[in-house]
Design goal:
Layout (H helix, E strand, L loop, with lengths): L1 H29 L15 E4 L3 E2 L13 H16 L3 E2 L6 E17 L5 E16 L7 E12 L4 H25 L3
Parallel strand pairs: 1-3, 1-4, 2-4
Antiparallel strand pairs: 4-5, 5-6
Helix pairs in contact: 2-3
Length: 183
Amino acid sequence: MIQLQTLKKLQLTKFKYLFFIILLTATFTSCKFYNFTGGDQGLAKTFEVRMFQNYASQSPGSTFEPGIDRDFTQALQNLIINQTSLDLVPSNGDLLYEGEITEFRISPMTATANQTAAQNRLSMRVNVRFFNKTKEDVDFEQPFSFFYDYPANSSFSSVKSAALEEIYERITQDIFTASLADW
């Protein structure tokens, strides 16, 4: 009787071990087709991000903010590097991102009873052109935008860093999703 129970436990242990090995094998082989960020880079191995030109001052009501062209370009490069296995190259990448910053504007959003602004909104719009040499039917040109609201009694310089970080994060993630998320 004891030997029969021991034999059944041993068979159950072997079954659990076999099940675990099969599950582990299936998990690692499926990563070949899917990565945890959701990005689908297909056959691409490299990417290029050309400097996004700052044409915001050409839009009525928009202002020119020095350095956002460089900072935005670097934010997009860093996001793609961190979320894919693609290599950044200075030219002839399998994937190409280029475009311009077309709007950078601070607008009053809500008013107080005294007809003064209670809240301001920083808005940024970027026009992006994406080209994929390995899969040309996914190329696009599209605008992306986001905003950051802050109290009107705060100066722009006091919220600038946090505002730009949030705006860059959202816009670059939207660009990444539009170009590499193949749902």
